[in-house]
Amino acid sequence: MTDLTTAGAPARHRARFHDLTVADVERLTDESVAITFTVPPDLADEYVFEPGQHLTIRAVLGGEEVRQSYSICQSRATATATGTLRVAAARVPEGRMSTWLNDVVAPGDVLEVMTPLGSFTCAAAPDAARHHVAIAAGSGITPVMSLLTSALEEEPRSRATLLFGNRKTSTIMFLEELEDLKNRCPGRFHLVNVLSREAQDVELFSGRLDRERLERIFAALVPVASVDEWYLCGPFGLVTGAEALLQERGVDQHHIHHEIFHVDDGTEPKRKIVVDEAAPPEATVTVNLDGRTTVIPMPSREESILDATLRLRPDAPYSCTNGVCGTCRARLVAGQVRMDRNYSLEPEEVEAGIVLACQSHPVTDEVSLDYDA
């Protein structure tokens, strides 16, 4: 291993963990909670966020470190005014972090929370008169709450529509807040709840929010040509199906913003590779992180670059390790890598050399990644 300090201008620091105190835990549904953190004034600048971004929470559960990302679910104005950050967590079967957050965490607890990350964002245009439309299902509503409320608050001439799929009324996260948003923004916010396991008066809104139903909703309520920005968030099938439909309708890819919460693409995430650290390296990776350069020998190219990096640089950022959250993104400076899967980077980011360390494997003998670029 070689560890050097890069000379020259100060490095741009990567997202990092800080201790934040839980101010409130609010029950949203039987299986979900909203958790509000107090942000101390001296950390306020570090926790400035773009609507749609997420926070990664780190905890030791059952003797093992667990990390999970949760989307910010409040508007930028509310966060600034209250000095807080709010995320929501829906219970996931066998999910250690989500179960802990739902059942154990209480006001006054202190949690390790990473500063905001994520590219599921859209720059505000205060003078614009835009139509923002979100298609979400289940807990996919969490970043959408921040995106749409911020758009309505920061763009007074814009409007928003939410097509929101759930099983039944009792499982709808933020139901009261969404109704309040309709009252606060009359004529500017349109909410369409689609329920798959509960009959509604309008047949169009009863069933799964699938391609066929989206086509009917577009025809009846939301002409595709009337929309300026699209936000897709939820399970793999919903997001990819809606994205394909919009592309077929001629929507510019740059105006389709998406984030996948649960991946079920028919493939299994690769298991962690056990390596013999004493074996001769098959490749060498040089990592620049927080202004320090570390040279990392990799005994096997089947191991992910993230796993190899963590042996020598445990401060390297990561969360889901499944190619979904984007926390481990870095710029490829030299060499070539292959990624197993990618559900967080946009095509233009990949073209610009951004990779996910958790999914990357060396192709060339030498690879260089820069987390600070």
TrEMBL record:
Keywords: 2Fe-2S, FAD, Flavoprotein, Iron, Iron-sulfur, Metal-binding, Oxidoreductase. Its cofactor is FAD. One of its GO terms (biological process) is phenylacetate catabolic process. Residues 15-123 form the FAD-binding FR-type domain. GO terms for molecular function: 2 iron, 2 sulfur cluster binding; flavin adenine dinucleotide binding; metal ion binding; oxidoreductase activity. This is Phenylacetate-CoA oxygenase/reductase, PaaK subunit. It holds the Pfam family FAD_binding_6. Residues 283-373 form the 2Fe-2S ferredoxin-type domain. It comes from the Bacteria. PANTHER family: 1,2-PHENYLACETYL-COA EPOXIDASE, SUBUNIT E, NADH OXIDOREDUCTASE HCR.
